[in-house]
Design goal:
Shape: elongated
Number of strands: 0
Mean pLDDT: 83
Helix content: over 70%
Radius of gyration: 22 Å
Oligomer: single chain
Low-confidence stretches: none
Largest sheet: none
Distance between the termini: 41 Å
Strand content: under 5%
Amino acid sequence: MRFIRPESSPLIDAARTLPESTRGADAAAAALRADHERWSRTLWGVGAFIVFAVGTLLTGMMLDLLAGYATTAAEQTLAVALVVLGVALAAAGLVVLFWLWRTGRALSRAAVIWSRVPYLLGVRDRSATGWLAPRPVRESPVMFVRVAACALLLLVAVFGLSISFFPGREAMVATSVACALIGAVAAFCLAGLFGGIVTMQRGIRERDPRWVRVIAR
């Protein structure tokens, strides 16, 4: 899986310093947005989080099983094997989530810079119609799915972290810790995903003079 398309890398590198020319700025911003909003990135994120959650929960449950419920050698051997599998799944999911966040941040920030270039260099004027610009982006199918994912991640984060306060958690300490870890990672994923949505709209909102004045203040 390519987290960043080959053609996006030069645009990201060029955006590290404010470009001195507006040539190709709109095309660069559009290409970076298209790369950031790929369905494959969304599906990889969903899959990676599910793999991480399954692996973490499996690890916690098997550790609790080893702590007091696995009595025979066969049960203990199976539990250990499943712990190893769970750790591997959780680690793999975390690695994918990390790279999706890192590359998504690079794409969104570069897209914002390229979107702002014509206005910062004074080549293009802002207009009141810029207020309407972010609406189609926010209502695109992939953005709708990402906003829905943010809502689900919020529920998972609240539920996972609240496990620490449930009665009877002492009987399954490792499972409770696993649920809390899933909730914490869900909260970080929520922040990263929602931050990406807001950042992508920031560049488009550069067309709106009122929004720019508010941000400047």
